[in-house]
């Protein structure tokens, strides 16, 4: 069944997802929600001229769409996802999905009241073949000594911050910052590969507005630590590594997963990855469509994905709290 797709947000990542969805031939862009008709129409004209543009959220959600892709500022995800679930529309929400476990609990309870609705968090790297290669290789390693996962990339909005402006992606008011944006990639990878940590600590480099511009997070497991390095105010070309004893997995970029190499520690190394897809969102778009179209057969996999998303949300919140970073929606700030 071709799914009628609606989008919230008209930025580059929304365009990438729509193009990926169209490549799967599982979706048809049917509706675009935007604050202005002009911006929404320009987006629709580029990707699907037949799509209808809406500036009213309720009208948009009741226009016949079956799935909505939400890529608005983080602080808007919660209310927009709530509205979509109440309208019995499946939800794909970009990371980080929600601000804290309290918001996630509300969403989870709402999902129980609308059992036909599926909610996904867009962790695109987890669905790429090269991530599965990493998972398979870890299973073959006799011991894990630790890992360092890196994703530090200069933000296109950091110049605005340096000029004295307050871009959404770098403010606590919009539930944003380095951890909530780029840090989600290595954190998702760590929890998918190693499970929930016993403890977590975040050492943040804060901006003048109190948001985190970069930072180091440490996840403590029974017999090893995982270090996450991420930021939005500089470019890092450091590889990520997963350490065995003598053997090591080297990853060029934990978010993009272009090349993965296994070194056995005996002088042999081999590339175990395949070429990365041109559009890194195709695999996740296909996976989401499969689950929506086959709800009964896919329920165990879907429930595992939803649990992982909740776990990431929990650890994200604990990391923020350990660094003294609060969002307006956090319970103790209300």
From TrEMBL:
Transmembrane segments: none
Protein name (Swiss-Prot/TrEMBL): Gfo/Idh/MocA-like oxidoreductase N-terminal domain-containing protein
Entries under PANTHER family matching the protein: PTHR43054, SCYLLO-INOSITOL 2-DEHYDROGENASE (NADP(+)) IOLU (PTHR43054:SF1)
Domain Gfo/Idh/MocA-like oxidoreductase N-terminal: 4-111
Organism encoding this protein: Weissella kandleri
Pfam families per the UniProt record, alphabetical: GFO_IDH_MocA
Gene Ontology terms for molecular function: nucleotide binding
């Amino acid at each position: 069944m071709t799914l009628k797709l609606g989008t919230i947000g008209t930025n580059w990542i929304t365009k990438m997802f729509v193009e990926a969805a169209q490549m799967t031939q599982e979706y048809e862009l049917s509706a675009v929600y935007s604050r202005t008709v002009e911006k929404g129409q320009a987006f629709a004209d580029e990707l699907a001229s037949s799509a209808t543009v809406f500036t009213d959220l309720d009208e948009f959600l009741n226009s016949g769409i079956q799935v909505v892709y939400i890529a608005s500022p983080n602080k808007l995800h919660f209310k927009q996802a709530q509205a979509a679930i109440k309208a019995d529309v499946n939800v794909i929400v970009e990371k980080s999905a929600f601000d804290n476990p309290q918001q996630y609990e509300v969403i989870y309870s709402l999902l129980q009241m609308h059992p036909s609705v599926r909610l996904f968090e867009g962790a695109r790297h987890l669905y790429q073949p090269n991530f599965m290669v990493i998972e398979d290789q870890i299973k073959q390693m006799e011991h894990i000594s630790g890992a360092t996962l890196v994703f530090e990339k200069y933000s296109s909005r950091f110049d605005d911050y340096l000029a004295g402006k307050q871009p959404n992606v770098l403010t606590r008011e919009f539930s944003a910052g380095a951890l909530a944006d780029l840090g989600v990639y290595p954190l998702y990878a760590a929890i998918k590969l190693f499970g929930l940590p016993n403890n977590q600590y975040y050492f943040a480099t804060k901006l003048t507005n109190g948001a985190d511009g970069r930072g180091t997070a440490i996840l403590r497991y029974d017999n090893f630590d995982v270090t996450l390095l991420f930021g939005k105010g500089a470019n890092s070309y450091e590889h990520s590594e997963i350490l065995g004893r003598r053997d090591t997995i080297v990853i060029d970029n934990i978010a993009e997963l272009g090349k993965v190499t296994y070194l056995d520690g005996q002088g042999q190394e081999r590339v175990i990855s395949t070429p990365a897809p041109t559009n890194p969102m195709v695999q996740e778009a296909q996976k989401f469509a499969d689950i929506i179209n086959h709800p009964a057969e896919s329920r165990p996999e879907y429930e595992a994905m939803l649990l992982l998303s909740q776990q990431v949300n929990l650890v994200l919140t604990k990391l923020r709290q350990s660094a003294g970073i609060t969002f307006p929606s956090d319970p103790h700030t209300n």
